[in-house]
Amino acid sequence: MRAVRSFRLFVLASGVATLVACGSSSGETLFESGGTSGAAGHGGVAGSAGQAGAAAGAAGSEAGSAGSAGAEGGAAGEAGAAGEAGAAGEAGAAGEAGAAGNGGGPPECKPIGHDEDGDGVDDACDNCPSWPNGDQSDGDMDGLGNSCEASANESILSGIEYFESWMQAPLAQWELSEGYVPTQDLLKAADTSCGQDCGANALWKKPLSGTYGAESVFQKGDGSGWGGVLVADKENDGGWVGCLVQFSWTSHTLGLWKFTAGATYVSQIGDSVTAEDAQTPSGSLRRVRVIVQGPNLTCDFENDLGKSATLSAKAGDAMVFQGRAGLRVYDLNAAYRSFSVFR
Ligand SMILES: [Ca+2]
Ligand SMILES: [Ca+2]
Ligand SMILES: [Ca+2]
Known about the structure:
The chain is α+β, with helices and mostly antiparallel strands. Helix content is about 25%, strand content about 30%. It has six helices and 15 strands. It has helices at about 1-15, 15-20, 35-55, 60-75, 75-85, 90-100, and strands at about 160-165, 175, 180-185, 185-190, 200-205, 210-220, 225-230, 240-245, 250-260, 265-275, 285-295, 295-305, 310-315, 325-330, 335-340. Strands 1, 3, 4, 6, 11, 12, 13 and 15 form an eight-stranded antiparallel sheet that branches. Strands 2-5-14-7-8-9-10 form a seven-stranded antiparallel sheet, with no helix packed on it. Helix 3 (about 35-55) runs antiparallel to helix 4 (about 60-75), helix 3 runs antiparallel to helix 6 and helix 4 runs parallel beside helix 6 (about 90-100). The chain is globular and about 50 Å long. Residues about 1-105 have low confidence and may be disordered. It binds calcium ion (3 copies).
């Protein structure tokens, strides 16, 4: 796994290389509907597992799991090819295992030539495209990788409805407030220090209801401020509820916050928890996710150094945790790398 992580960090540090790699993809939405998303994610497990084995020089145990994943998706040949290209006999064995599984699996994914999380698995084939999971492990076999499941209960979510890698400005699917500066491959918040006016939202236009998860992966720049994921509170006053990380010079804390429209008023829902050490490098990846289940909201944080934190809240009578999900930054120089919606 060390090799996987190193590869990912190389990609992050090489913005130009990333852009070249994804130039043909034009920021396409990979997963649009609940009906196809699960299948795409599931089928994707196949070839991608083999690629992951190649990229990482998979160990025997990993190759074995790649093989069984190949059996699921039926992409035997791809897995075998990946083994030959990269890594030794073990990965090749994964291909053979995949061959054994031909027949009856979900449809194959169609790689788009971009691997946002750098785990060796193409975005379109990755069962958790936002977070490195080269082994593509999926304990409940529902097509959503363990890395993208709800931490407390993996049966809550079962597929990828939408994945946006921010390869280009996502103007068609999003509403961006003025504070956002879209650029290729990253959605950046303006680097300013101007108080409340620096708050900026990017909202996915599609309304969400029922049970869902919304997640973003981002990097912060130097300085203090907030960044995280929003869910709507549409029944109340047009404002938003967000799962946000507050970065001060002395603490990095996770909190649930409520905003009225325009962010003229902010209140905190419950207590904050320490998300990570304040010394965590700015360039580290942060993943923030909200899972909405009726009146219950769970707010999760994870970074690429293994730190995690969770908060939860229950909606009051005048508050409903559903509507549009999106991103929120406040007085923070941050680069959002991806946004996902899970069902
Ligand atoms: Ca990937
Ligand atoms: Ca992944
Ligand atoms: Ca799963």
